[in-house]
Request: fold
Amino acid sequence: MTGELIRQGKGFMIEIWLNEQLAPHEEEVVKVAEVRRGSTGAIFAVQGSKYRYYFKTCEAFVRYEPQLTAALDRWFPGYIPAVVGIDAAKSWLLMRDAGPTVRTITQEDGDLSRWEDMLRRYAILQQKAIPYQQELLDLGVADRRLDKLPALYDELIADTDMLMIGQADGISEADLERLNAFGPTVRALCEQAASFKIPETLHHDDFHTNNVSLLDGEFRFFDWAESCVAHPFYSLLMMQRYAKYVFEADQAVLNRMRDAYLEMWQDYDSLARMISLLDITNQLTALCRTLTWRFVVKHADQSYRAELADAVPYWLLTFLNNTPLE
Reply:
């Protein structure tokens, strides 16, 4: 074991646990290497004697992620990388490698057309999750349903420390006045969105192609620490932003992504009405993202807070100015 785990003296204990999880599969640990570390946890590649796995240690404030991921794998097999083992008390998660990320594949060939099928499959997952709203909330997933957003907004703008009032990259006094007067508009946006027929469900609030894998034609979705029960269309906006800003997708590509995703929801409402609904949900996506960043910054280790703090005012101004794709 390497890196921070050794410094914390946990390497041997974790290796024992990994071998215990792999033993029923007639596997043993050959090598463990850190892949990525961030505010919500660390990810390690685990090479077994036959297959490759990924092990995640989750921070305490997102301790629900292992149990959530295991539940999603149990409820919707084939949509999540197969969960090999979890330790709920330690917030550990071990999953089978589900292939390269869609980001890696797209970087190699530049083909964004496969993202349309990815969005169709993701929409199916969201629809499968509709009956599980209470179970998701019970697992610790945030409640960002439309009827909860106005109160969450009021709480958010009252947290002036988090808004970095008057600081560089923070909220100006003038914009704070605008935010304080924006509450009725927030309520109106939520009421308008609720007037459509789209049910709320699982939303991945860090939805991008580095959290989606592709193997043998099957897309699988992971890294659910930043998720909530909310309007499903927020996920579309997150992926469109990623396509535009990371892969420089033009409007035609974004429109094809939009249509591929929305066509999966036509049992609930018409395509034309859903396209008009995006004018509302795209703006509300920015509010949802602000709330996620507030949660992360407030609870993350001190070493990450300074680096992440400006995300809250950035996303809040994106919401206020309604510029989610600008």
